[in-house]
Write a structure and sequence with these properties.
Chain lengths: 271, 332
Amino acid sequence: MRSDRGQSAPLGLKIAAACGLLFLHLPILLIFVYAFTTEEKSFVWPPPGLTTQWFAVTWNRPDVWEALSLSVRVAAISTAIALVLGTLCAAAVSRTKFFGRETISLLVILPIALPGIITGIALRSAFSLADIPFSFWTIVLGHATFCVVVVYNNAVARFRRTSGSMIEASMDLGADSFQTFRHVVLPNIATALLAGGMLAFALSFDEVIVTTFTAGQQQTVPIWMLEELIRPRQRPVTNVVAMVVVLVTLLPILFAYYLTRDGDQIAGSGK
Amino acid sequence: MTSAVSFQKVSRHFGSVRAVDAVDLDIVPGEFFAMLGPSGSGKTTCLRLIAGFEQPTSGSISIFGERAEGVPPYRRNVNTVFQDYALFPHLNVLDNVAYGLMVKGVGKAGRHKAAEEALSLVRLPGYGARRPGQLSGGQRQRVALARALVNQPKVLLLDEPLGALDLKLRENMQEELKSLQKALGITFVFVTHDQGEALSMADRVAVFNDGRIMQIGTPEDIYQRPRTRFVADFVGSSNVLPPDFVQRYSGQHCWGSLRPESIRVSRAASGEGVAARLVSTNYLGATTRLALDADGLKLHAVVPAGTALPAEGEAVVLTFNREHLHLMDEPA
């Protein structure tokens, strides 16, 4: 297929590609456009006029700030939990051989393969069985289940590409386990952890389904949006928040992609 | 005198596999000791037992008189040059070499100075700022050597360190390692599956097979006077002669060995000797290797290049000096 390089793609293919991209991204652009509309009760096309007043209105709405702050705190803490647990789990699975290793590897990945509604219902019934009242921490726990997977996947891939004899070399040169982790393991997995952490943060930030099952009265940003759509007033405020969410989640994902794209560069391949 | 490394009935079993099986071993301080054997013969496991990456299933190990069982690798005064070098890709060459001193708490100026000295020792001065990824295989090998030597170990372990290098580089490194070892006076323990390497570098060689030591001795001992069929065959591919054959020439009924270069090949008409047929000739540059068939017994002979040879398939007569026929301990 290399010989096709340099030749222009057929016109039909170009049109198909353009249609595909439009289909994917036009709705998102529409959301951006409606953030500037002057009409506040319904979304009419074309917008009757353009204004930036909704940014100021959004800025002054305390419920927006509450939702944003909750989302950021939940995402930060779930990511932190996921970083610790995911890394430890990845280290165990990739460094040692033990009975049931493949099973554990599958079980760790399962939460992200299962529909969110299953995870949500399971957690909700577990919480009520254990008599745990819904709170900030129940949301965090719910989010941590799938954040762990993302960190684990990134870390396990990096561990596999890191030469095992490097750890032995470090020990051989006089470093104990902690020094080896600090000076050899951590620097080698750092970018993978950063990438995994950012993906986890982004996933947690726009999670809806598990959150509806594990939250009490609190509203994270996506839940707040759903509620807001039912209310007839100040609709463009939702769009302004949506724009912010897109930016907040897109940037970390792009950065994570950038950090891990050099996939063929194998750390510690000495030959 | 205390041994540098001493093994007493050391075994290391992995499940039902006896990687190392009741090995006794004494390595003299300051010697260049080679562990030679095919892959899976237990030589690398022995090295890892000395380094502390493996613990013996039974038996005891001591390093300069100190019991080593249960002592973790980072508390042993022993350093390893790994087969894949295991350089740290996130550190530059200087910090790689200084790593051992860094974890021991030596200050930056002190450890960088020592690392520079170690780099000059392996003839890589001024390479400190580079990353391991920017070096060639031979240079990485030298960095790995410097990184191990900077800690001034009592024993330096080398795990097939020349395996990944090309022939020319390997020959150079062999000489260099040998003279480095002489200059530093450190005990070197060298693992290899290349008998030429073991014979040319080591003061003494231990030949491993199936987790056991078949023979320990000087290179000459091992080469000239193999004790078992395995050693004769593995070290320099001697001709192994069955007891019946040996009895005809020595009067003793035991296995024997005969070096390929000890056999003279002449045309069938030229008199007494072992009747054989020349199966094939193999030109090797300085020498020519002949495959022979003496009434079902397969033999090899090596003759200097340029010797006039019979054609392949022709009948020949083999003669050898009886002194060169070595009788092995292995019972018939």
